[in-house]
């Protein structure tokens, strides 16, 4: 389950749509109704927070967000413009360092895609959206 307070327009999440897992994009958050409007690519529908789940951050998700990868010793560096994200061990996203200009942050826990999107927005003031091929 994802907290309603963590949700921002544009965030990628997984929804439980009557037993079917789907990925979608947050369109709007209604604090009054305590629901989130999700676009799953076919339609938009309102979901309660108990039907929303985080998508774990991994290399495939970073690729969907437009990051390029660069080997870095035993780890990997992911680049998107001047924004950088480093994992000291390849394919291990439980220890992540990210920076943009002078703003440098370290996380010793796995991040989710929507958390990265929100951190990217805080640090760069630019939304981190899916790259459409």
Instruction: Count the beta strands.
Output: 10
Q: Which strands sit side by side, in order, in the main sheet?
A: 4-3-2-1-5
Number of domains: 2
Distance N to C terminus: 30 Å
Helix content range = 10-25%
User: What summary fits the major beta sheet?
Assistant: 5 strands, antiparallel
| Oligomerization state | single chain
Radius of gyration: 15 Å
Secondary-structure element series: EEEEEHEEEEEH
Could you name the ranges where pLDDT drops below 50 across 5 or more consecutive residues? none
Strand content: 35-45%
Q: Note the total helix count.
A: 2
Task: Summarize model confidence as the mean pLDDT.
Answer: 95
Principal-axis shape equals elongated
What class, by secondary structure content? mainly beta
């Amino acid at each position: 389950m994802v907290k309603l307070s963590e949700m921002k327009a544009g965030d990628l999440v997984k929804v439980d749509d009557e037993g079917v897992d789907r990925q979608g994009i947050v369109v709007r958050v209604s604090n009054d109704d305590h629901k989130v409007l999700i676009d799953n690519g076919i339609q938009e529908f309102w979901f309660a927070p108990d039907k929303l789940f985080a998508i774990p951050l991994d290399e495939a998700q970073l690729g969907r967000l437009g990051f390029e990868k660069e080997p870095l010793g035993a780890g990997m560096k992911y680049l998107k413009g001047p924004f950088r994200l480093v994992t000291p061990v390849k394919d291990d996203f439980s220890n992540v360092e990210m920076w943009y200009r002078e703003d440098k942050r370290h996380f010793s826990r796995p991040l989710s895609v929507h958390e990265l999107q929100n951190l990217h927005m805080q640090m760069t003031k630019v939304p981190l959206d899916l790259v459409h091929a």
